[in-house]
């Protein structure tokens, strides 16, 4: 029998570091993309959170990973989308390896790191690079991949045999083969529009859609503690999961509640087929994220 419980959406104007309104062990999956340390777009926000250098920015995020660990069920999954940064340091431009720092900090928060995905965005300008024309040796390799880092809380999640929600949530062989490969090169970035003015940092619906279907069951609860425009929340709800979104910035939260009243900014691409027989995933929205 299909699972009958209708999904609910809960939006919280709060801080990912203090998820007090969310009960311990009540969330099955976290899908999120935090503000990226050392990306200028997020400097002012990190400063408002008291963080002005790389370590302090990752300390802010680490507090959020600890809270995610608390609210997840045993065996629940945390999936973090993050990109590295290239920015001046004491000796000139250098890599700020946000993905590596996040792996270390989330593991320190108690999570088991799992194999990760390289999200290689189809690039409008494949030859774009930072450097000096065609002369070696001082050019930089282009940062055209982001990371999707999955973690588990403890051991594998245990489910009753023949759980109908699990059967209802199955994916196809084609989906499995594409989604569980280490490089995703078929998802374009999302168009950007922020309530604060400038870019929102939104990911395309295809990213949370895939992660929700890969790592949760119909009827589960999915959390995004850095909700932004709510892409995860709308994707999860459309796929028959209950969704919780937490957003700290006042203007972004106001925009999020407005889009909630209109049913979300746009339906996720795969939502139509959430309960239909599995099919191949669609690509992301048009327009680059970066
Ligand atoms: C990269 S954006 C998330 C974008 C989102 N995935 C989407 O598709 O719209 C990060 C969001 O986290 C929010 N944020 C930053 N610090 C926060 C905190 N401590 N608690 C909750 N939200 C926070 C920012 O205001 C921003 O909206």
Low-confidence spans: 266-290
**CATH class division:** Alpha Beta
Number of strands: 11
Total domain modules: 1
Label the overall shape. Answer: globular
Q: What is the gyration radius calculated from CA atoms?
A: 19 Å
Look at the structure and name the CATH superfamily.
Answer: Vaccinia Virus protein VP39
| Mean pLDDT across every amino acid position | 87
Ions, cofactors, ligands: which are bound? S-adenosylmethionine
Q: What name does the CATH topology carry? A: Rossmann fold
Structural class: alpha/beta
Brief characterization of the structure:
Helix content is 27%, strand content 20%. By secondary structure, the protein is an alpha/beta fold. Helix 2 crosses helix 3.
Structural account:
With 290 residues, the protein is α/β, with parallel strands linked by helices. It has a single domain (9-126, 140-273), classed as Rossmann fold. It has eight helices and eleven strands. The protein has helices at 43-48, 54-71, 98-108, 164-168, 173-179, 206-215, 231-238, 250-261, and strands at residues 9-13, 27-32, 72-82, 85-89, 92-96, 112-113, 117-120, 145-152, 183-184, 221-224, 242-247. The strands form two sheets. Strands 1, 2, 3, 6, 7, 8, 9, 10 and 11 form a nine-stranded mixed β-sheet that branches. α6 packs across α7 (231-238). The longest helix has 18 residues, at 54-71. Mean pLDDT is 87; it is low at 266-290. The structure holds S-adenosylmethionine. S-adenosylmethionine binds next to β11.
């Amino acid at each position: 029998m299909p699972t009958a419980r209708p999904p609910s959406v809960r939006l919280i104007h709060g801080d990912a570091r203090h998820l007090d309104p969310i009960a311990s062990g009540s969330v099955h999956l976290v899908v999120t993309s935090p503000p990226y340390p050392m990306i200028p777009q997020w400097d002012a926000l990190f400063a408002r959170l008291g963080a002005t250098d790389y370590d302090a920015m990752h300390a802010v995020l680490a507090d959020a990973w600890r809270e995610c660990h608390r609210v997840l069920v045993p065996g629940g999954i945390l999936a973090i989308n993050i990109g590295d940064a290239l920015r001046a340091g004491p000796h000139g431009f250098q890599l700020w390896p946000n993905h590596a720092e996040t792996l270390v900090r989330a593991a320190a928060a108690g999570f088991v790191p799992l194999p990760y995905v390289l999200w290689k965005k189809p690039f409008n300008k494949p030859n774009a690079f930072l450097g000096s024309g065609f002369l070696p040796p001082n050019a930089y390799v282009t940062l055209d991949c982001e990371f999707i880092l999955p973690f588990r809380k403890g051991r594998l999640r245990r489910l009753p045999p023949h759980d109908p929600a699990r059967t209802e949530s199955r994916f196809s062989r084609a989906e499995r083969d594409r989604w569980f490969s280490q490089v995703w090169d078929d998802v374009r970035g999302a168009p950007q529009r922020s309530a604060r003015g400038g870019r929102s940092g939104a990911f395309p619906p295809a990213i949370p859609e895939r992660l929700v279907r890969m790592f949760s069951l119909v009827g589960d609860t999915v959390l995004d503690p850095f909700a932004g425009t709510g892409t995860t929340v709308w994707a999860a709800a459309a796929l028959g999961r209950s969704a919780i979104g937490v957003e700290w910035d006042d203007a972004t939260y106001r925009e999020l509640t407005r889009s909630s009243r209109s049913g979300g900014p746009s339906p996720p691409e795969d939502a139509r087929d959430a309960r239909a027989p599995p099919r191949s995933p669609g690509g992301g929205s048009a327009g680059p994220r970066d």
